[in-house]
Sequence to fold (689 residues):
Amino acid sequence: MSRAVDFLVRTRGRGAPDWTDWFTWGYLILGFVLMFVPVAWLVLSSFKTEGALLEFPPTLLPYGPKTVAVGPDRKELPVFVVRRDDGSSQEMVELRRIGLVATMLPIGADPADDAKIVRVPIDRREPVREFRLATSNYTELVRKFDFVRYLWNSVFITVVATLITLLFNAMAAFALAKYRFRGRHTVFLVILATLMVPPTIVLVPNFLVVSQLGLLNSLWGVIWPAVATPTGVFLLRQYMLTIPDELIDAARMDHASEWRIFWRIVLPLSAPALAVLAIFSVMWRWNDFLWPLVVLSRSEKFTLQLALNAFQGDLVTQWNYLLAMTVVTMIPVTIVFAFLQKHITTGVASAGVK
Amino acid sequence: MPGPLTRVAAATARIAFGLAEAPMRLAQHALGVRRIAWIFLAPNLLIFGTFTFLPIVINFYYAFTGGAQLMPAERPYVGAENLATLFDCGNFLDPSTCRKDLFWRAVFNTAKFSLAQVALMVAFSLVTALVLNRKIMGRGFWRGVYFYPVLLSPVVVALIWKWLLQREGVLNAALAAGGATPVVWLNDPSWAFFWVVFVTIWAHMGFYTLILLAGLQAIPKELYEAAQMDHASPWRTFSRITLPLLMPNLVVVLVLALIRAVQTFDEVFVLTGGGPGSATMFLVQFIYQTGFMEPIRLYGIAAAASLVLAVALIVLTLVQLRFTRTERAGARERE
Fold:
């Protein structure tokens, strides 16, 4: 054991671990618990049945009532432990229950065999539970709620807004990086200045603009205001500055149009920067909340985030479905995180974008 | 062998290219090569103009007109009345003497929250960055642990914690198992405020940790080797080398975090809804409620409150610009 600890806290090229090593590992483990356990608890809970969610204290793993298939029609019936007068107990299935008395059958017995059937007062029995994932929380989302529509709205906004963001911001960045025209410094400053105007402070007037454009309760009302991002222009411009002008001049010699130069030379060469912007754009749009909340008030236009907010505000919160929907909402971001963590962290560290 | 998805994407890209090429060629003939830059800029400038600069102008118009009409033409000019209403206070330190007491509660809550949250967040980010900067096993993994919540949507973050903190939640179960009395966390004003601070730190700490980590990694290793040679204690190494050299990054992180803290809305709105009462009601929620949730929508008051928020943000941004400039100058000197 102590050798294992030594191995864990071993640091390269130094002697015995001092207090800073102990602090480091204590902090990391505490941090892991604080950061990871809440998410894990949400995922575990999302597989519990509605009844299991109401239990206090909660069990760690999802449990459900154990059932056994009985009779010729293989009907699933709940299993109970029945206490007899002599103190012994036996597992039985419940055939039916009338008032305080249940009609029960020992496991394995034939339900047609009347001799085996016993009548048990319900206070003499306990339900048997087993590990069971309530996947119905997920499958029922589709049937009971307009889940597919919310998912589609979210995916549509995310994909379309990201594609337009990439195109528009790359065009602007190309103009600012590769053309010498009057006023280009001013334009660049004006675009950067919009960084100082967060959407939160133009909420009311933007509502007017979007409603005048007829975009209220339209997914485009969320998409259009979001597709021009100063961070995106800045990121792409800085990258395009590193593309040698000679490439562009050579293409002009060959009578390539400016659009062709942009599309065939500059865009492909900017792929790494475009990828970073795409990742961020996907996460921005997928996680957007306040602006969609203002623009989309009809439930058939809700994104997943809005649907989650609406359900948690219901008088009676159906936590089993709400938790499952939350987990589904987390999945795309988690996938992005798992595969592209390195791009995101370098993007954050170098440009400070978020 | 490209998959069908790749082929579809390539075909779409070809069509997009073809669609734009003819008009762009025409524009190039008409304007010349140099001025075509404006065509490339046009979509972005149009969107910035429509959804950023035009709204700034309209916001002023709203702030100085009254009534509950959305249409600018139907709104009567009231001068500074909206601002006067917001600032109509018997005693500015006591929100209950104000005409718009909710606004002042939101202002005080936002100030209290921003100070507490930013101070704690910068402190924790710094400690985390220091820990992650050490030679530890699986550094990428540990960095990921702290960064993951940054990517989660505010709604998801709020729901994760709402589920943990509810009356029959796992935290109360742990308390009950330890013999303590369970608490209805989000129904108690002080606890609700504490959890709002805690949850927003939980969600955003990883971002600032990464920025500080990048700053730490830029500090030359030779300095630490020299300190080790001189048998400097870890504390002395930290206070004489790490802290002074990290200071510019720390200031940037501090101001960035402040700018964001002042605008906090999403997580809190879902977690507490501003409650209990108005204990966790912040400025952006006041604007949202006044403009979009009340039966009579007082756009003028909401726009005036936006102006107050904008002034706070402009001040913070100027502070940030100032410090970034000194940081750059400092970096140049160091080179």
Remarks:
- The longest strand of chain A covers residues 89-98.
